[in-house]
Every structure is written in C-alpha cells, then in structure tokens.
Amino acid sequence: MEKKDFEAWLDNISITFLSLTDLQKNETLDHLISLSGAVQLRHLSNNLEILLKRDFLKLLPLELSFYLLKWLDPQTLLTCCLVSKQWNKVISACTEVWQTACKNLGWQIDDSVQDPLHWKKVYLKAILRMKQLKDHEAFETSSLIGHSARVYALYYKDGLLCTGSDDLSAKLWDVSTGQCIYGIQTHTCAAVKFDEQKLVTGSFDNTVACWEWSSGAKTQHFRGHTGAVFSVDYNDELDILVSGSADFTVKVWALSTGTCLNTLTGHTEWVTKVVLQKCKVKSLMHSPGDYILLSADKYEIKIWPIGREINCKCLKTLSVSEDRSISLQPRLHFDGKYIVCSSALGLYQWDFASYDILRVIKPPDFSNVSLLGFGEIFALLFDNRYLYIMDLRTEKLISRWPLPEYRKSKRGSSFLAGEMSWLNGLNGQNDMGLVFATSMPDHSIH
Prior knowledge:
22% of the residues lie in helices and 33% in strands.
C-alpha cells in the first residue's frame, strides 16, 4: 500500500477506533495481537515497557524524590532499595529519612557526619540491636567467684567492678575477663566507691575507711557514726567525703585528714543513699557548677548545698506522700538536672531547678519494680524476676531479661547498673560493657 493511501486508511481506522466502547477497543486489540507476528509483538513489548513501566523516581528531581520518600516507613524503603541500583542509591542517600528512623529507635544523631550513606547503615545496625533486645539475645551472663561470705556492696566504673563482702575483703574485677585485679583485707563492707588509686568503704562497724589498692594499706579511718554506714560518696576536688548512716545522720568529712566537718541532721529513718554531684541548672537556691548533696531515707530526699559553707542548711525536702503512707525505694538517680526515685506509686521525676514533679511513670504492676538507671531515652528497671528496659518517650517496656534468684536487700545495695551512657541514646559504641550486676546467695556475683 502506498504511503498516502496508508495514511488515509490509518486516519479512518483511528476515527472509527475512538468511537468504540472500551470493551470493543479491547476486543479489537486482542484481534490485532492474534494476527501479529514475532516482529510486531517485540515492537509492542518495547513500547509498552516505556509507556507503562516508567521509573518515576529516576525521572523526578532529587529534592522531590526525597520529599516523597519521607512519607514511607523505613521497612518499605528497605524493600524499595531492591528495585534497582538507581533506587537503592537515591533511597540510601535520603539522610533525613534514616536519621528520623534512627531517632525513633532511640539512637543518638551526630549531625557532623556528612556521608549520605552513613545513616542507612546506622539504621540497619539499630534495627538489629533492638531486635536482639526484644528476642533476649543482647546480653551475655557470667559469674565472678572468689568471696567466701555475703557480698553486700557493689560499685562499677570504666569496666571495673568493686565488690565488698562480709568476709572482710574487697575485690576489684575486670568485668570483660572476669579476672580479679586486686583483693585487699578490709572491714565488713556495706558501701564501696573507688578510683585508680584508692577505695572508700562504708561499714556495718559504723565507720568509713580509705584504702590504697596497690598496697592494701588503710590510709584513713573516719569514726563518728553510731550506726552502720550504708552509703558513701566523695570528691577529690572538694577534698570532701559524705556518708549516710543508720544513725539517721549524714556526715561530711575532710577526705585527706579524716576530720568530721559537719553532721547533717533531720532524717528520721536510716539514710540509705548519699549522692554528691555538680548542679547543671540555675534556680534561686543554686547555680550551675555548685556541688549538691542528696541524701535519702525511707520516706524523704533531702537536698544540701556543699562547698560554699560547711554549716549548710537543707535547701529542700522531697517526698511522695505527706502522711508517709508511701515509702521510697532505696535507689536514687541525680544527674544535676533531674532527681528520679521509685516508690509503690510509680517512678517520680523532679525538675531540679524548680523541685516540681515533672511526671510519675506507672508501668504495669509497678509496686514491685525498682529503679536501676535513668537516662534521656531509656530507663533500666528490675523486679524479683526480670530486668526491664523502658522507652521513656512512650513509657512502655520494650524488653525484659530473666534474672536469677539474686540476693535481695532492703537497703538498696547488692545490685547495680553498669554502663549508663546508652540510656541517653544508643550510638553503636556505647552498648558494650556491664549492664547489670547482682550478688548471689552462694557469694558469687552474677
């Protein structure tokens, strides 16, 4: 057929085709396809590929692609990465999407990292870690064996765990290897705290002592309490040691000389916890950088200024019930901004600038749950059976780990948290090291 005649025929056919119903058009196409040979079918396939399977992500400007991708959830995006190399490249480079996904999982975001492919890799690592937490695969357990009597006092710092026992000894362990680095003869230890050179112990014999690791020698003895000393803290910069006792008092000592500088009164129960910490917020009563002492008994938390004057007066007393019907559990968290303590009513968080209660967190069956560690993102809790991880943004428990039949103590020792920085958000490096340690009935440490 001549070109001119073909064009006239094609115009006529086109006009007729456009006048048909959809069903008639489909029947016409089916008939034409049945009459087509291999060349025509290949031509039809190539053109349909272009018309019907257009890669919109490839055609769109990159900024518009990123905007559309933000509406998809991370798991869907991971599936989309399998479509093609181009899709994988574009999706992997969508930094904002992956950073947001990491934040939602409780991951710390370092905005200085410029590599566009970095955050997708971080998200995949975060997903794996959270899955391990939920599936009880994130933790390894071990036992430290060496004491011959009850282990009451525990303290952890920089990969090292100190244990104080009724066998009149204290030991320093490398948690990663389980090896005992130092073992020295002491008194019965109710509380311990250490650094590279020295160990400070509070004892059931009503005294506090300072020991030298390398020689085991007692370098200072603090006498004056008339009841067991359940908690100690110290600061080399201030040359101050503080101790809380069953005689209802807190004593402030000169660390270097052993002289008692002050006895703080006002508690009407055993003082089971003292914390010496720098303030990080400003209020009418203190400024950032001021040293603050917190002391806690069964019902109250008292706040004292330390460093400005020896004869300090209590700034504030915190409690959860006026009639003392609700007791505080002997665990106390203070980071310079917030005070956190648990009770049968829930987990209480106070703003240190105003002393106002910010919130009360009430997980299921909280009457038996104790505070272990508290951060910006996660909290570490435990009861008689499980160690719990809570997402503080949602106040929901995201994981639990079965605990052995550990030794229980009403005064809050015999168990402690290890590394705490991950509670402010995981970053891929801070999720290693000790999580939880507790003394066992057989005198070992789990």
